[in-house]
Amino acid sequence: HLTRSAAVGYGEQGIRVNAIAPGATSSEMLDPWIATPESRVAWATAPIPFIALGDDMARVALFLLSDEARWITGQVLPVDGGAQWSLAGGGSQGASGYGGIYEGVGRDWS
Known about the structure:
Number of helices: 6
Strand order of the largest sheet: 1-2
Oligomer: single chain
Shape: elongated
Radius of gyration: 16 Å
Number of strands: 2
Low-confidence stretches: 90-110
Mean pLDDT: 80
Strand content: 5-15%
Structural class: mainly alpha
């Protein structure tokens, strides 16, 4: 609720307040886990079954900062490839055509 409260409090000043709720993102801390069997199980049902890169989060931040998002405020934007839904049991049963999360690490999606 902090994001919403700040958006209401600062909106009249023309300040938009949003938050990014990042999913698994390749990093020094997460990369060792990516190679484990537990990782494969955790991401087997993700709609987009690969680990994000830092650039993926940066692009969302740039969008939220842009004029394209001028009407968006008070939102928490999940950036997790749909994992929150599939890991909770309510989403896709996986996407065919992907070899798994390992293919996505380091992939250039531009």
